[in-house]
Structure to design on (459 residues):
């Protein structure tokens, strides 16, 4: 039996890492908590980057997850601007700033890194949107661009396009799928999203691949589509997803197939746990391993991992939750709307621009989605949590 | 206990309603409605959970 921990190291100082530190204290842990953050900034919230920060409604400081005095209150040693570079599972040390830092329990919460467009590294005018520095740079470039081309119409690309239109910036949104966020929310809701963006004069290039991002050797000059169409622009946002930030764990012996592989209690190896975007864990309710890159999961999984590190955790089996704000429309979903094979509106109506829809796989409800219907959606969450039969959900 | 909600941060997720339904509700737009800014001590754990679950960190709890 491993003795109770005295030293806990958390690698990652963002939503998951900081929530874990808070939760450890709330759960009564009074030993050392060290939090390592690669970015120079105190931990901040990322969802507003494509919304309030990009729009200019909020200053960067409003994104900070914890007020500064809270770090002292919690008694956590937060080391910012310093990245962990290696893990020795057997020796129970993590390499930070060239020194080995010992731990009794380790939490890996290093998140994800945005995918870049191959060959555009160092090219001016090509942006990603993951950090506050990314967002500030992109906002400045977008405001002086005659048109912004957004590559990728997932959550991030679609939200950024909506925010830019709110600023009056002309936007072209390119995606190989037939409609925005189709992979995440299915064709019915994606079609409504396409309509929403079209109403706001987004130049939609759907079903379109990108052949090349073109440049003059220094600065981007345009985006060439697969059919040969040339989109002239000085500002490109690449929003084509992200990959788990696990390069520092190469050679550690951990399973790094699509994130840090964990058991049902978020444990990756003896005394090593993971939470947030970087963690792929065995979801017992789903009977499979999943990795969830959503804000609420960072919090919930960090709380579960904190309990598990203290030897008190049960299996982590959340009902995933995600939301997106585009123009005046709030879209929220519980469960798994991706990959469903059934879809039905159960209340409201798409024509009225307020509805709740259920998603099914086989005979079961696996997800619910609300379009401008937060209260109704919260009630419908029970359909997913209970995994009710499709016919009962649709008949109700 | 003194609870405040920074309503312009609220993203309408409803986590607070699930964690502490006697203290929080939502309006039609999903924004949090504080039913009881000074709830009984027995609800303190629920309220702390709501504050920590809030994906927008919109809930502030003072002892």
């Amino acid at each position: 039996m491993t003795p109770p921990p005295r030293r806990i190291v958390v690698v990652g100082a963002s939503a998951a890492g900081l929530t874990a530190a808070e939760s450890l204290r709330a759960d009564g842990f009074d030993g050392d908590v060290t939090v390592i953050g690669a970015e120079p900034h105190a931990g901040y919230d990322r969802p507003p980057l494509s919304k309030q920060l990009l729009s200019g409604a909020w200053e960067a400081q409003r994104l900070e997850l914890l007020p500064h005095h809270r770090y002292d209150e919690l008694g956590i040693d937060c080391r910012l601007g310093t990245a962990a570079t290696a893990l020795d599972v057997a020796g129970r040390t993590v390499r930070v700033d060239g020194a080995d830092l010992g731990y009794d329990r380790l939490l890996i919460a290093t998140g994800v890194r945005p995918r870049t467009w191959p060959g555009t590294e160092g090219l001016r005018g090509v942006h990603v949107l993951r950090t506050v520095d990314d967002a500030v740079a992109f906002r400045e470039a977008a405001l002086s661009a005659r048109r912004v081309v957004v590559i990728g119409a997932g959550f991030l690309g679609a939200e950024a396009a909506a925010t830019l239109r709110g600023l009056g910036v002309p936007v072209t949104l390119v995606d190989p799928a037939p409609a925005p966020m189709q992979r995440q929310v299915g064709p019915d809701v994606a079609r409504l999203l396409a309509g929403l963006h079209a109403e706001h004069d987004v130049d939609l290039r759907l079903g379109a691949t990108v052949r090349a991002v073109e440049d003059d050797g220094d600065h981007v000059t345009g985006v060439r589509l697969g059919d040969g169409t040339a989109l002239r622009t000085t500002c490109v946002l690449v929003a084509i997803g992200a990959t788990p930030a696990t390069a520092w764990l190469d050679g550690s012996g951990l399973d790094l197939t699509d994130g840090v592989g964990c058991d049902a209690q978020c444990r990756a190896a003896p005394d090593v746990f993971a939470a947030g975007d970087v963690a792929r864990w065995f979801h017992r309710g789903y009977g499979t391993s999943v990795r969830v890159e959503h804000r609420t999961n960072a919090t919930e999984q960090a709380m579960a991992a904190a309990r598990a590190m203290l030897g008190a955790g049960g299996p982590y089996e959340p009902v995933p939750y995600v939301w997106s704000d585009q123009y005046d429309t709030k879209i929220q979903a519980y469960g798994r709307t991706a990959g469903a094979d059934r879809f039905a509106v159960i209340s409201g109506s798409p024509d009225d621009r307020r509805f709740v829809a259920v998603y099914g796989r086989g005979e079961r409800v696996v997800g619910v989605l609300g379009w401008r219907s937060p209260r109704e959606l919260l009630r419908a969450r029970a359909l997913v949590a209970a995994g009710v039969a499709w016919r009962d959900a649709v008949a109700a | 206990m003194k609870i405040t909600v920074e309503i312009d941060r609220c993203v309408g997720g409803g986590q607070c309603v699930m964690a502490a339904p006697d203290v929080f509700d939502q309006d039609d737009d999903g924004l949090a409605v504080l039913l009881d800014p000074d709830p009984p001590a027995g609800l303190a754990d629920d309220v702390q959970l709501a504050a920590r679950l809030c994906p927008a960190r919109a809930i502030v709890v003072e002892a």
In short: The mean pLDDT of chain A is 96. Chain A touches chain B through 21 residues (CB under 8 Å). Chain A has three domains: 7-113+243-309, 116-240, 329-395.
